[in-house]
Amino acid sequence: MARAKSVKPVAQALGAAAPLLAGQEPEPADRYIQWLRRSPTPHHAVVAVTERLAENGFEAWDYGARLPVVPGERRYVVHPDGKSVIAVVVGERSPVRAGYALVGAHTDSPDLRLRLNPLSQSAGVTQLTTQFHGGLIRRAWLDRPLALAGAVYHALRDKHGRPRLHEITGLPVMVKRLVHLDEPVGLIPDLAIHLDREKNDKGAINPQTMLNAIVASGDGDANAVLARLAQRAGVDFAELDGFDLHFVSAQAPQRVGLDRSLVVGARHDDLAMVWCALEGLVASLHGRSNTVRTRVAAFFDAEETGSLTSSGAASSFLRDVLLRIARQHPDTDSRDDAEQAFAHSFCISADMAHAVHPNYADMHDKNHAPRINQGPVLKANASDRYATTGETGAVFAALCEAAEVRLQDYVVKQDMACGTTIGPITSAQLATRVVDVGLPMWAMHSAAETCGASDLADMVEVMRVFYAGRA
Ligand SMILES: [Zn+2]
Q1: Best exposed site among 163, 229, 399, 460 by fewest CB in 10 Å?
Q2: CATH topology of domain 111-249
Q3: How many angstroms is it from 456 CA to the middle of ligand 1?
Q4: Alpha-carbon distance values, 48 to 28, 161, 295, 302 (Å)
Q5: What CATH architecture does domain 24-109+266-468 belong to?
Q6: How close is the Cα of 298 to the center of ligand 1, in Å?
Q7: How many whole angstroms from 173 Cα to the centroid of ligand 1?
Q8: Residue 8 pLDDT
Q9: What are phi and psi of 272, to 5 degrees?
């Protein structure tokens, strides 16, 4: 099937870089870049999501308390681990009858995280040893200035220095703090080619030995290095009881190309989709919208490692929240079953897609070679690595048509393995209809990925139409 070629002129309105005039709204790609800079880890991405939601009248629901469901209210629920979040605009009708308009995306990206007890000294330098999260492109992490970000935890202590235990739960009372040391504090230098003449042809990178980051030179005292790090981060590392600390690229995302049409940066997979869903949801609040059904955006941690965590897509987090909303909704009758809601729902699972690469064009089938800046991508796989069905794909194609946005198709070459995402997991968890879509990008899982500036605007528009239920 050939996709329609019609497209709104705005989708290609790139042209040369024009300086912003006073009061002029920045382009979507520039707003995305600003948001992405504030989201170095899932912890930070969730905060950046909730800040944007709060600007638009959303208030927090406490996952540990009863959810007071009021039609028309805007709410969000952060999972207790702080790495997944669900935004909700409560519809006027019970979800049992009107269903949910759902979008899912993921907050984590492949990166290098500190090991427990990471400090190591050898060859006259101090290193922090790392462990990898997800299927990262190892060589992309070499020779790249690295910043440090994440969450740190310490137990509250009594005056004798003993951890305080909670009166009811009996657990130590923990304090969590986010850290974003947004400066180049680490580096993983490559080995000179003179010391390995075969590296251009072979060049395997052992993650145990070759991905540890240097944070200081000289034979100084390791504690002094930690103290310096602590001072910069505003945290006393000696007091810490635990941490989730990530090395992330210290290079800011930026627009590239004579036409500024490309966006290079870390974590497009999948923060570009988180951002598009978020902006589409927000945009749906500011125009004519279907206010009958309940709008939901779910952003999950741990997709890159298979989603099987307490807040990942394979957890009960989303299902629990949706069932609780359905039960508490004042329009739900006591004779209704909350699970009825899933029969009336539709979910867009949004995760990035592989654009055809000019230097590796034979990695794509010619009918399934999505191009950067030519619109969203519908992803299908007959072995169910994607959740798209003939019906759900048709629904998304019609949404794109309503939004006047081009759509591209992607099926992996049949002699290659297909990736997967949260779509199949979500469809299995909810028994609801799901379509897998994304935006085309290059170098997925690199420390510097590339996506298209106009594609971001297009996907926001499709999400807006989906949430608004109006073109
Ligand atoms: Zn992804």
Answers
A1: 163
A2: Aminopeptidase i, Domain 2 (2.30.250)
A3: 16
A4: 16, 35, 19, 18
A5: 3-Layer(aba) Sandwich (3.40)
A6: 14
A7: 34
A8: 52
A9: -60, -40
